[in-house]
Amino acid sequence: MANVSISVSNLSGADGGASLRSGARSKGNPAARVLSADGRGRKAIPLFIILGLSLTGMAISKRAQVVNAIPGSARLFAALGLPVNIYQAEIQNVRALLESGAGTNGLSVQGEIRNLLKSSNKIHDLQLSLVGKDGIEAYTWVAQLPEKSLKPHETLSFRVTLESPPPGAQNVVVRFAK
Length: 178
Description:
Low-confidence stretches: 1-26, 30-38
Number of helices: 3
Oligomer: single chain
Shape: elongated
């Protein structure tokens, strides 16, 4: 590490000036000691900025793990336009079909779940909700999946049937159960 010189002049009231090199001691001049401490503090500011930026970058890249550890942080990430998928899986290609026959009506919901990880992933059961025109959930149920884990980037097809769905439901919402 290079030596740094800090000039101190006329701060102690003495004639002339004093010179303090890093690592040098100054017992008789308290002002010199303060400047030495300030100099070290200024060197630490870029270090704290770099550390802060590094931690922020890690938090953004590992936001699912951050949200698992600190659940309230999901709202912060969402407000920053960085949604968090804590399940590391996605539900895709969902279709709902009304089926009728033999005097009963049924609702069949089918789709796929894809593991987004490069490693195996625990898959949660599905929560399905029937929503009316007014946006209010009319009926909600949980469907268990045949598999509880998916291999890296594996896709699992699912099909769930509800006998006699309540009337007035317009939409089906499919999400992972908590």
